[in-house]
Input
Amino acid sequence: MTMISIGAQGEDIVACDNLVRIYSLADVEVVALQGLDLRIRVGEMVAIVGASGSGKSTLLNILGGLDTPTAGRVVVNGLDLARLSGAERARYRRRTVGMVWQQTSRNLLPHIDVISNVELPMILDCRPNRQQRAEDLLELVGLSDRAQRKPHNLSGGEQQRVAIAVALANEPSVLLADEPTGELDSATSADVFELLRRINREIGTTIVAVTHDPLVAEHVSRTVAIRDGRTSTETVRRTERSGAGDHRVVAEEFAVLDRAGRLQLPRAHIEKLALSDRVRLRLEDDHVGVWPGEPTQANDPTRTQLDQGDPGEGDR
Ligand SMILES: Nc1ncnc2c1ncn2[C@@H]1O[C@H](COP(=O)(O)OP(=O)(O)O)[C@@H](O)[C@H]1O
Ligand SMILES: [Mg+2]
Output
């Protein structure tokens, strides 16, 4: 990706290069990811958005070490996931990443209490001082008074807060959340995302969260949109100081250009200009113009070129 050039390569905690994931079913192949590129820097909080079926969960499962891509490379925290042995992969899933799922039931064991749920990953990782750390984590997510309850005695929002504490138990480098508020009402959802933002700010954990909620996407510094198994656009937000001294958030949308030079035009642009199959490109001093393949306007600059038999045209 070239648009997001902030920071050096070495600071990327997540680097996905040309990820492809094809599910082979009995009589059909489903291409869930088709050459996805994504880079995330240490300490970023990134929202992933996209229509249902666009490949968001497939990406998170790969980042979480639960699934392997059909092709392409994924490096997280310096580890090339394809090169991990079975034991290394198990350790990666225990330590390097923490995961929060949409289904509250998938995040917590129902028959043990909240604090035991938070301690469990630490037991599996043979960590010392588990109880103290579990208490600290429950305090962090604001649920110290729920420690002895079973998950089903908590509200949906509280269950997701516990799930976040569980995911943080072994101090992961990256917290992955797949629609963590998908089953919650909007007010509770906003609280859970505010918690994620606070964790990102205060602990510095890199967070990648899939969400459908456009309001959430507005509160993170970067939103990556996935379309048809590829990163299509990125919205980068930064705070600017106005002349009067107050701050305002400026959002700028970029198309993602991969290393092979491919980019996806936004669907609205395609429809507005009725672009299909082939388009004309023209290189200007500081930009590239895109025109419909069939000239529609008399002042179409590429048409003049063609009509005049522009010699450069034959090279394309
Ligand atoms: N285990 C699977 N077997 C077959 N196809 C799958 C499987 N998981 C996902 N898919 C397909 O891959 C595509 C992407 O799915 P997914 O990553 O779940 O999208 P999203 O999370 O954005 O809704 C969809 O077409 C989906 O039907
Ligand atoms: Mg999904």
Observations:
- The chain has two domains: 43-64+84-240, 267-316.
- The mean pLDDT is 87.
- The longest strand covers residues 12-24.
